[in-house]
């Protein structure tokens, strides 16, 4: 049993190293995906970002659990190892919940994007060309090569179309040379483009959460098998101690009670 316990011990230690590495990868991936959603939060809404935020939080928690798992595996405290296994189970469940949540948001994101984007367009209609709101629209137009929510007709009431709808404007020096006249107007709206972009990022969030939950679930079996091996080893040790104690008592000298012992003789005078 001692060899079996040591095997599981080193297997759990190896898992905790991989567990910590997966947490670092998860932190970087979820942080990057959160950033890609956050930069367009004014157009897609904050609710869309919540699955990525939860995944980022789980990455931080996973690092802490990996450290706890390493300490408990080294010390071989059965109750602490069981608690660590339970924590890993909770992490896997939450990550799988994040996968389901991201897929639900992915399925309903079209309504959220359309509603949020239309409201933001109405709130910023007629804003100064150099205002923060107009610059956000310029950045969106240039990035997705689109115009307005549904197309350039959205600006019909304002009487002019932003130069960013032609790929030109105050933010376009890194993309195209600035020109005072619009040669080719983007005819497609940004609503559909941003909707597809958001769905793509949410799909990546969901797949990241699913992969993390599957990979990290292997630690559940390793941890609980280690706890089982420790319990079996302790039971074997107790049985050996009991057997040794019983054999010690059985070896006591009881020759005086033996029926074959010689009868006592009286002293001679």
TrEMBL record:
CDD domains: tetraspanin_LEL (cd03127). Pfam families: Tetraspanin (PF00335). The chain crosses the membrane at residues 12-38, 50-70, 82-104, 202-227. PANTHER family: TETRASPANIN. InterPro entries: Tetraspanin/Peripherin, Tetraspanin_animals, Tetraspanin_EC2_sf. One of its GO terms (cellular component) is plasma membrane. It comes from the Eukaryota. The keyword Signal does not apply. It is a multi-pass membrane protein. It is found in: Membrane. Keywords: Disulfide bond, Membrane, Transmembrane, Transmembrane helix. The keyword Transmembrane applies. This is Tetraspanin. Disulfide bonds join 147-166. It comes from Bombyx mandarina (Wild silk moth). Belongs to the tetraspanin (TM4SF) family. The lineage of its organism: Eukaryota, Metazoa, Ecdysozoa, Arthropoda, Hexapoda.
